Amino acid sequence: MSLIEETAAGLDGLAQLRRLIASGRKPGILVSLDFDFIEVEAGRAVFAGVPGDHAYNPIGTVHGGYAATLLDSACGCSVHSCLTATQAYTTLELKVAYHKALTRDSGVLRAEGRVLSIGRRAAFAEATLKDASGRLFASATSTLLVMER
Questions:
Q1: Residues near 19 by Cβ (< 8 Å), separated by ≥ 6?
Q2: Taking the CA of residue 47 as centre, how many other CA atoms within 13 Å lie in the half-sphere pointing to its CB?
Q3: What would the pLDDT profile of 97-107 be if each residue is shown by its tens digit?
Q4: How far is CA 11 from CA 78, 83, 87, 147, in A?
Q5: Intervals of the chain under pLDDT 70
Q6: Deepest of 30, 56, 67, 140, by most Cβ within 10 A of its Cβ?
C-alpha cells in the first residue's frame, strides 16, 4: 500500500495531499533528495529543498535530476489535487528547461506547480523552480495520464 493510500483512503486528491502534509510523513523520494512538500491547494502544489552535496554530479554542480524531480513532483501533485477519490495519475511526459546552474550555495529552492488544464484522460501542468529572491533556475511542462483506479 502506498503512503497516500495508507494515510488517505476514500478522500479526494486534495484531501489526500493535505492529510499527507499534516502527517509529517515523507515518501521515499523526498527523503532521498532531502526536500519537502510544503503547500497544496486545488490545482497548485509547492515543494522546497536546499541542494547539497547529496545532489552533486561529477562536474561540480547540482545534478539536473534534482531540479527535474522537484518540478515533476510539483506538476504531478498539482494534478493530484484535482482528482476524485477514484482517480489516479501518472506522468507521460516531462520537459525541463534549465535556466541557471544550481549549486550548494543556491539556498532554499521552491518548485511551484500549477494545473493548466485537466480532462477525463489527460492533464497538463507547468512548474517553476526559483530561489528565495525569485530567480528562475528551471521550469517544466508536463503531460499526465488521468485514470480510474
A1: 7, 8, 11
A2: 32
A3: 999 999 999 99
A4: 16, 10, 10, 16
A5: 1-8
A6: 67
Cβ-contact 70, 109 below 8 angstroms: yes
Domains in the chain (CATH in brackets) are 3-148 (3.10.129.10)
User: Amino acid identity of 41?
Assistant: E
Give 31-57 pLDDT, tens digit per residue. Answer: 999 999 999 999 999 999 999 999 999
Q: Which residues contact 24 (CB under 8 A, 6 or more apart)?
A: none
> In 10 A of CB 141, how many CB atoms?
16
Please give the backbone phi and psi of residue 48, each rounded to the nearest 5 degrees, phi first: -140, 145
Tell whether pTM > 0.85.
yes
- For 115, other C-beta atoms within 10 Å of its C-beta total 21
